[in-house]
Amino acid sequence: MTQTRDAFENRLRQIGAERYHDKHPFHHLLHGGRCSPEQVRAWVINRYYYQHSIPIKDAAFMSRVEDPDLRRIWRSRIEDHDGTDTNEGGIRRWLRLAEAVGLDRDYVASNRGVLPATRFAVDAYVRFVRDKTLLEAVAASLTELFAPKIHADRIQGLLKNYDFADDSSLSYFRNRLKEAPKDVAFGLSWVLDHADTQEKQDAAAAALIFKTDVLWSQLDALHAAYVEPGRIPPGAWVPGEGMALAKAS
Question: What is the pTM of this model?
Answer without folding.
Answer: 0.94
